[in-house]
Amino acid sequence: MLLESVQHFVQLYPDNLIPDLAAALSAITGKPFDEFMIFFGRCFVRFFSNFGYDELIKATGRYFCDFLHSVDNIHLQMRFTYRKMKSPSMQLTEVDENGAVLVYRSTRTGFSKYLRGQLLEIAKQLYGMDVSIKVLESQNDTPGGTSGPISIQGGLKTVIVKYRLDFDNREYMQRRVHIKAHPSQLQLTPVNSKLLLNLFPFALILNEEMKITAVGEKLIESWMLNNVNRSPMELLGAKVTEHFKLRRPSGITFTWENVRALSMSQEHFGCLTHDLYLQIKRLQTVLFEIQLLKGSSAKGSKDATKQTDSQPAVSQVDTSSSTEDAAKIMTSIPRRGSQGLRSILLKGEMRYIKDINSLVFLCSPLINNLEELREMGLYLNDLNPHGLSREMVFSGFSHYSRLDLMCEREEQRAEELETSLALADSWKRQGDELLYSMIPRSIAERLREGQNPHETCQSFEEVTVLFAEVQETITGDDSIKYALTTVNTLNAAFSAFDELIHSPMAYKVETVGKVYMAVSGAPDINPFHAQHMADLALDMLKSIRQLNLPGVGVKIGFHSGPIVAGIVGLKVPRYCLFGDTVNTASRMESSGETDNIQVSGYTAQKLKKLGYELSYRGKVAVKGKGDMETFWLQGPPAKKK
What we know:
Elements: H1 17-29, H2 33-49, H3 53-58, H4 64-78, E1 89-96, E2 99-106, H5 112-127, E3 132-139, E4 159-166, H6 170-177, H7 183-186, E5 191-192, H8 193-199, E6 204-206, E7 212-215, H9 217-226, E8 244-248, H10 256-262, E9 288-292, E10 317-318, H11 323-331, E11 345-353, E12 358-365, H12 370-375, H13 389-395, H14 401-438, H15 441-448, E13 458-472, H16 479-500, E14 507-512, E15 515-520, H17 529-547, E16 552-568, E17 574-578, H18 580-590, E18 596-600, H19 601-609, E19 613-622, E20 626-635
Parallel strand pairs: 5-10, 16-18
Antiparallel strand pairs: 1-2, 2-4, 3-4, 6-7, 6-12, 8-9, 9-11, 11-12, 13-15, 13-16, 14-15, 16-17, 18-20, 19-20
Protein name: guanylate cyclase
Organism: Anopheles stephensi
EC number: 4.6.1.2
């Protein structure tokens, strides 16, 4: 149908397709991302209209407000055709002559503008009216995303967007809201709540504290079947959430404020012209589904006589019935066996009755067939005497809500799996980043494919190895304070060096004490290793100067030649370099001077051919090598300055 799911009728497309297309078009054209999302929403309405779904929308009512009231019900029915459709939840919270306020809830982000385009196109194409939409409030709606943010407690956070829709709503208000009661209705005698509960034997009446003040006889009996050793008087005065669970509308908590906003309230839809208008006039089509909890551990009020309003009434209220009468009704109900009973789903509408400031849930149990009726411990004569409840059960027809419950549970498991996969993906990325900081990415991928760590050992004909040692000239008597200062200094210096390392030009091998080691040409073969290492050394020297740390300098030295490299260790594996080249490069650093870069004669010849500025230092005694000619690296080639 509509909204976030791009459920094209021949293929299921990924959620991120539309945001990615919008982002690509925005990058190419320079137009805002939101503009394309709104456009795509309009296009989807035109698309599904080709398949006749526009007729389904127009059948919901004569007015645009009728459609807005019915969106959730449309989604409910469409879920049986498109099983993987992730429909959001939408309810009107305010309606007036100039428009309405719509609250949108979803577990996915980035589709609020897409919905906006759909609403604009539906209003224009199907109802011939212009609508302006603005966002009043928005929570957790990340632009361009598809998965909602993850809460600390686990699961996806709910995206909530409150829209103000401005349009000409005067005719709807005149025909649906500002209706005067017929004089004959104003002359009706008071009606006792017993009559209401006889007509709706599964009804609930809730006060402002969301406590149960009255219950239909058959609902009491169903509760008793699931609570064999409990007194039915515990229902009176108990919180409704202790014994029932709100399944629909989804995405809201079962509170007075939320239910009141979605129930048949006069205050939310303007003032009527007469106080005695019918107060249970049907103003909305929001359907509620409530599930009776099995074996609930809640303990309500055991003394019903403490409830002063245990017998509310409808319309013009007659409160003459006492709570003792209610207690007799409840205690007179015979118990039945409760083995193997399935939970009961109740579906109906919440009506707000102003006279007693209470909510009345007028409902019927959702039963597919005679087998389910038996499994619930009910009989045909237990069902509402009006409507088609008995005929539907007897004939074996199904409302599909039982199937919907199963699908909802599967969707909940799918959402939990999606959250788990998102967390696992996040943890995998963090693990990969940690692994790549210890060993090269190319080596890690080979190990992940099952290669033996011993087989990662590799020889390189020529690479350039660099050592850089941070020098400190300021010392102190306090060894602990000096050590803390040293740690902070090394962290600042090495962090600056890390930002200069870019694969495959260079690879950070390790840090030992105050010494930083890097290589170019391994593990990724690089014919320009000497050039890249010279650039890195010059940038290191520049970065130390830019840090402007008092008394801090750096000695740098590097040399080119053959090496052998491989993974060493199991607990904390490291990528290590071996060979005479490594020893010579280390000597270039140790025999150098602070804030200077010393290179071997062999490497200097390579750099001279590339135009780097070098000055001859002389011969330096290198352990195991004798006297070696060395050079100072002064700067890059002239064209790089």
